[in-house]
Model the fold of this input.
Amino acid sequence: MPYQNIRGVNINYEVIGGSGPWVALITGGRRGYAEFIPFAHKIAAKGFRVVLHDRRNTGASDVLIEGEEGEEELWADDLVLLLKHLDALPAFVGGTSSGARLSMLVYLRHREAVKALMLMRVTGGAFAAGRLPDMYYGQFIRAAEQGGMAAVCATEQYQERIKANPANRDRLMAMDPKQYIAVMKHWLDIFQQGPRAPVLGMTEEALRSIKVPTIVIPGNDKTHDSSNGIAAAGLIEGSVLHRLPIADLDEPLIPFTDWAPYEAEMATVLCDFMRGVDKK
Done:
């Protein structure tokens, strides 16, 4: 698992596959890329090179809580610089949940870098809008307010990041809690801007402005209700909608790992889609 320094942050990444068109796949939430490894191998086996990476502040990459732009905007620019380092541009870009949203943001900020978009488990709707701000930011702001950076480091998510990259603890403990809180509140404010549906934080105008080939595979839980994926596909001109043989469930969040039985189908569908794009 090599690291590449991107704008002062060591980004943990992996390339799966030795030849073929480049594909960047992005996991959801604030999770590292490990859950995508089996899926990436299925795509690589069909003749593609898949780039997986831990976004800054996730997985084994460095934690750096600073930036005037939103966290997801920072991620978008980081990914394009990583792909440039790998001489992998333009690339197919896709992901699940927040990774799908990030894929769209990569296109909107760096259109020349994206050959096509592959959007899985699109996030949107009132349930997601009510749940995710606290999951991503609110709980950590409260921890810092109540117990400083030691309390932040003690949370489950940061414990995972420290275990994967022990130097992250020193970086966090060196922060002034007031500065940490200020940045996290700033990112929270940015995260809460914009529409709630069909894509959290993404305007209909932005969705209609997507002009690269796009495929959408809707989710099936309350955070990734299929109606949002279907609606997003309807707003992206010329997009392909592929529905898996699954029904929506009354569950807050179904882990991507629970989709393992559908990975082979998704890999086939996405690879056929990418080959079709390359033939045009």
